[in-house]
Amino acid sequence: MNESSAPATIPAFEERLLELADRLPKRLRQCAEFVAANQDRIAVSTVAEMAEGAGVQPSAFMRFCQIMGFTGFSEMQRLFRDSYVGGWPDYTTRLDHLREKGGETGGGLLAEFVEAGRASLEGLLKTVDLQVLDEAVATLSFARVIHVIGMRRSFPVASYLSYAFEKMGVPAVLHSGLGRLDNQNAIVEGDAVLAVTFSPYAVETMDLVEKAMERQIPAVVLTDSTVNPLRKAGARLLAVSEVDFGAFRSLSATLCLAITLAVAIGTRRLSE
């Protein structure tokens, strides 16, 4: 696979990643998937830390950087550091400091998850394209019925959205996969899909969205990166990055974006 010139901007980086992701061998694809879901870590991590997160050797991660067009990890990292001039993420240092002060206690854990949530919320304005957000609100506001889906870790967000829509009188259906039924036939012309999915993407969610879009049903997706296969299909993607503590990620920023969407849609429908 031939390397090309390095992307000069974050959007160009995302386009390159999306273009290459499906054609990479297994180890390099692991790197691509990890980077897509954790772009906020690139500026503050070492190549060894990124490689460990992706589950590959540092040499494989270096090869991935070269495939992306960079001479190495340092050049790729510089792109992301330049994008955070004066304020690139410092949560890694802060979380490490909290761990040193006793993260195994209840109070220590609370402090760490509060800090992770704070960092996630601060990053939300950086990851969400406000123009796409407005377009998503318009699309969902005019829908006859909004079909909501989110599996596994995403399910609390999907169920909350359905609850909020119900309370605001917005017609919505929650697709939970109960009994392994996908209720695809309930989605008809004039409806829209609102999906929540994070890497590794839930197969049920991806299938429902893809099949709906094949029938020209518009879709809005809350996800962890705009480098998502559904982007190629034309879905509107709202990217939200959650900072983790250990192997656990809260849904602080995702729920904030969800309530923003729900209230904006409910308000707009009332004003029509």
From TrEMBL:
UniProt cross-references to SUPFAM superfamilies, sorted A to Z: Homeodomain-like, SIS domain
Cited InterPro entries: Homeodomain-like_sf, HTH_RpiR, RpiR-like, RpiR-like_SIS, SIS_dom, SIS_dom_sf, WH-like_DNA-bd_sf
Ranges where the HTH rpiR-type domain occurs: 11-87
Signal peptide start-end: none
CDD domains given in the database record: SIS_RpiR
Gene3D superfamilies: Glucose-6-phosphate isomerase like protein, domain 1, Winged helix-like DNA-binding domain superfamily/Winged helix DNA-binding domain
Ranges for domain SIS: 136-272
Entries under Pfam families matching the protein: HTH_6, SIS
Protein keywords: DNA-binding, Transcription, Transcription regulation
Nucleotide-binding is among the record's keywords: no
Superkingdom assignment: Bacteria
Stored PANTHER family: GLUCOKINASE, TRANSCRIPTIONAL REGULATOR
Name of the protein: MurR/RpiR family transcriptional regulator
